[in-house]
Write a structure and sequence with these properties.
about 45% helix, 29 strands
């Protein structure tokens, strides 16, 4: 028994000595943890905790330095350069065994600056979203862990736990990572489109998102990734946005990152900061053990786990047995075994491990004693050989050291000169490349990589055509010939501009300055080209030119409209005198004169229609706005067109269900449809297809801003998009710029007034809309019209009864007009209808007449455009004298503002000159008979 006790004590003592000796071999390690964000940020803290938990087990005495870049609060490039200067000075005399970076910003910082601040130091990254192998191309000291949310697994577990789900709403922001996540969603959700409706809320203000989520039906789910900044620029901490969303949502909210856990999400297959840090820590242990970074592959599969919040599970009736095996559940009720499960397991494993160690050490001691005897004999023999060989090597080593010192001095001088040149060229804010006379690229600087997206190894040795220069420009210019000419005659191209290709397929415009290098014997050797990206400058110039063209066109249209408005009043008065007198004369004319008078009357009415078209074009005509279902109007027009159009023209409708309603003048919309369809018919004399299409759409901010001089909007707004297409002969490009001008027509003389499209232009503009024409010769024409889906303003007068017979009376009517011929004509018409009349030539005399005969006067017919105080001021004073006075506005110019304001002030109705006897009789009786 005593012998066994002595053996046991010896084994324990040997184990202690061995462990102490092993620990003594692990000297303190210098390790830097570089965090992208600030302390207290849960994701970064979890990563740091995971790293430290791994390292502290193996290297408890390791010296850890932790830096926080704080780039969430200071994201600009200037701040990054200041950090570079700070770290370069701070760690100039400190060497780290390994650097562990957390998240994208720290990773990007080290890919650019690690060789200048921490030369020859291996880097382990983690938290890098959607890592690609080219991210560390040319960086042999880098390895790490990919961070990628398992979106498919997250959707599958959510649908498994909520099988009645029919709608999933994604909440995501528009940061660079957010856009990557949305693209990943787009790749995943295609498997579910037949059963699940997906919606994205990624570019809204927070209050709009909350309003929408609050109204979701019970068969919905919310999938939250992250939302740090909304459309209005408001910043939210990682737990702030999810708390707002979870509190307002009546349906479950699932996520993709574990920093949202405990703040409102039910859970899911989550990317974990702790497990990212743990995986990175294990890679760092391999480097500290002696493995090279370039021999350690990047962990592509993100270490994600199933996490769930017990409180949210109770809220939505989810049982622990429903969860995937191995799920991690937080906020569970207290359980001793669950609380100390890791400790209990660790103790059991430790006891078993110690027993195994004791057994193995015992065997090792026996074998070691046998080996020591053999080793001692071999050591004595070897020692004699080493002494002799050491003497020979010592002499040779002395000579080698002298030669090595001289060589180091020469290499240091060359390295310093090369470094200065390389830093100057690589850090220049210009694209710098060299290419030989065959067109092959021989040098490509870092700024060129940044602008064009290619790595050096992807373009060095390749021909400029097909790599960074397209064969043909978008303008049609042949760049293959130009590049060949530059190689042959570079002195003729000291400065030139051409289109260049980026790796992602985008094309940019670059202004190049070329320098030729020549050799006396071989001639041209290389060409140095220095370029600047001028794409934005050219785009800005093109946009400015477009706006200038639009402004010139708008000014031309406005000038014509102003001219039309200026002549409308006098021209309508003149037509009224002609048509009215002709109508009066027809009543008692003999048959031989009656036909001529009818022609005079019809011609005057046609002139009135022409003026009305001009007023419509200039947007000065009255519109009767009302809620309109455009699809209904189109179907009515189609029935009419089918009766009028030849059979060889096919009419096709493509109308969107649930089309937005618009506020529109239905007669004017009918006129637009008829005019465009008739034009389409005329362009297809041999037959063809006419397509009328409607859909819901959006006038985006860029278009609204571009046309802000003609629209009442400068922001994006909903609209109904109406397109009318034909496959006729098309419109030449030089004609398209003038098609909306009044009196411009390509039809034969006598087959058109040239007002059709100009009237359409005026109607669309009066509805605060846009119209565009797209046509190619031989390919047909498409007119696209945008009509805002917003509330309209009804400024129409009181509807008149639809009667055909003359309506007479015996009342007394005061006629106020500054033109004697109009007063005389109106007086004659009213006498023929049985009325008594009084007249006044201006506002001042009208007020005197009304004051004198107020008790006799039953109605006032008032012209607004008069000298003196004018018609509007006269109306105001007359209503002030008698609030119950009945006034009809009779104007030769349909100005929306003046008529609407007159009706608002108290006028009972209006009539536009020239009018017929029948029209005047209806308006008068309508006002007089109205209570």
């Amino acid at each position: 028994m005593r012998y066994q006790f002595i053996v046991f004590k010896a084994i324990i003592l040997t184990l202690f000595i061995a462990l102490h000796a092993y620990a003594g071999t692990n000297t303190a390690q210098n390790i830097l943890i570089l965090n992208s964000y600030h302390p207290g940020y849960k994701w970064s803290d979890d990563i740091t905790r995971g790293i430290i938990d791994v390292l502290s087990d193996k290297y408890p005495e390791a010296v850890l330095s932790i830096e926080y870049m704080d780039t969430k609060h200071f994201p600009d490039d200037t701040y990054i350069l200041q950090l570079f200067a700070l770290y370069k000075q701070k760690y100039a005399h400190k060497k780290f065994d390994v650097i562990i970076s957390s998240d994208d910003n720290a990773f990007n910082f080290l890919t650019y600056y690690s060789e200048y601040i921490f030369p020859d130091t291996p880097v382990v990254f983690c938290g890098v979203n959607y890592y690609q192998p080219e991210d560390i191309s040319g960086l042999p000291l880098f390895t790490g862990v990919n961070e990628e949310a398992d979106l498919k697994a997250g959707i599958e577990i959510a649908l498994k736990l909520h099988p009645d789900t029919r709608r999933i709403v994604f909440v995501n922001d528009t940061t660079t990572t957010g856009k990557k996540v949305q693209q990943k969603f787009s790749d995943v959700i295609s498997d579910y489109r037949d059963t699940i409706r997906f919606e994205f809320l990624e570019n809204y203000e927070m209050h709009a998102i909350l309003d929408y989520l609050e109204k979701l039906p019970p068969d919905s789910l919310v999938f939250y990734t992250f939302f740090f900044r909304d459309r209005a620029g408001n910043f939210f901490e990682y737990d702030e946005s999810i708390r707002l969303i979870s509190n307002i949502s009546r349906v479950p909210v699932y996520g993709a990152w574990d920093f949202s856990l405990g703040s409102g999400i039910v859970g899911g297959k989550l990317a974990s900061g702790y497990f990212q840090g743990e995986a990175a820590g294990k890679l760092a242990l391999r480097i500290l053990a002696g493995e090279k970074a370039d021999r350690i592959p990047v962990i592509q599969k993100s270490p994600n786990h199933y996490f769930f919040d017990f409180r949210q599970m109770e809220r939505f009736g989810i049982q622990p047995s429903d969860l995937p095996k191995g799920s991690i559940v937080i906020n569970q009720p207290y359980s001793f075994f669950s609380e100390y499960k890791k400790l209990i397991t660790t103790i059991l494993v430790s006891i078993i491990s110690l027993l195994m160690i004791v057994f193995l050490l015992s065997i090792n001691i026996i074998k070691r004693r046998q080996a020591e005897k053999k080793l001692k004999a071999a050591h004595e023999t070897l020692e004699q050989s080493v002494i002799h060989r050491t003497q020979e090597l010592s002499s040779a080593n002395l000579q080698l050291n002298i030669e090595l010192q001289e060589r180091k001095k020469i290499e240091a001088a060359l390295s310093g000169s090369e470094k200065k040149y390389r830093e100057l060229v690589e850090n220049a804010n210009s694209i710098i490349l060299r290419w030989d006379k065959t067109g092959s690229i021989t040098y490509f600087n870092e700024y060129a990589e940044k602008v064009l997206g290619f790595q050096k190894k992807e373009v060095i040795g390749k021909h400029v055509i097909g790599s960074i220069v397209p064969e043909l420009e978008s303008t049609g210019r042949n760049l293959t010939e130009i590049m060949s000419d530059i190689c042959s005659n570079p002195k003729n191209y000291h400065y030139h501009i051409n289109e260049n290709l980026c790796k992602n397929g985008r094309r940019i415009w670059v202004a190049w300055t070329n320098k030729v290098f020549e050799d006396k014997k071989t001639g041209i050797t290389e060409i140095l080209s220095i370029g600047s990206d001028i794409t934005e400058q050219l785009n800005a110039e093109a946009e400015l030119k477009t706006k200038e063209d639009l402004l010139r066109r708008a000014q031309k249209m406005e000038a014509i409209g102003t001219l039309a408005g200026g002549i409308a009043h006098d021209f309508n008065n003149l037509l009224y005198v002609i048509s009215g007198n002709a109508e009066l004369l027809m009543d008692g004319a003999s048959p031989e004169f009656k036909d001529g008078l009818e022609e005079i009357f019809k011609s005057a009415r046609r002139g009135a229609d022409l003026v009305k078209q001009l007023m419509t074009f200039s947007r000065k005509a009255e519109t009767n706005l009302m809620t309109t279902f455009l699809n209904v109007e189109i179907r009515k027009i189609k029935k009419m067109l089918e009766r009028l159009f030849p059979k060889m023209i096919e009419i096709e409708l493509d109308l969107e269900d649930d089309l937005y309603t618009v506020n529109a003048d239905q007669l004017q919309i009918e006129q637009v449809l008829m005019n465009l369809c008739i034009n389409a018919r005329d362009s297809m004399p041999g037959g063809g297809k006419l397509i009328i299409k409607t859909k819901n759409g959006l006038i985006d901010k860029s278009i609204a801003k571009l046309h802000s001089d003609t629209l009442n909007y400068s922001q994006a707004f909903r609209a109904v998009i109406l397109t009318i297409s034909d496959n006729g002969h098309g419109i030449p490009a030089e004609t398209q710029e003038r098609i909306f001008e009044p009196f411009f027509s390509t039809k034969e003389v006598g087959k058109g007034t040239g007002l059709g499209l100009s009237v359409i232009y005026g109607i669309v503009k009066s509805h605060n809309g846009l119209i565009f024409c797209d046509s190619k010769i031989g390919s047909g024409t498409t007119f696209t019209i945008y009509i805002p889906a917003v509330e309209g303003i009804d400024i129409s007068g009181t509807p008149h009864p639809d009667t055909e017979h003359l309506m007479t009376g015996i009342e007394t009517i005061l006629i106020i007009d500054d033109e004697a011929s109009i007063r005389q004509l109106t007086q004659g018409i009213l006498h023929s209808l049985g009325y008594q009349t009084l007249t006044a030539e201006n506002g001042e005399s009208a007020l005197k007449t009304y004051a004198e005969y107020k008790e006799r006067i039953d109605l006032v017919v008032l012209d607004l455009s008069m000298p003196g105080i004018g018609g509007f001021r006269c109306l105001e004073k007359m209503i002030h004298t008698n609030p119950d006075v009945k006034v009809i506005i009779a104007s030769g110019y349909s100005s929306k503002g003046s008529i609407k304001d007159s009706i608002k002030m108290g006028a009972k109705d209006y009539i536009i000159k020239p009018f017929t006897k029948n029209e005047l009789s209806k308006v008068i009786r309508n006002v007089l008979d109205c209570d």
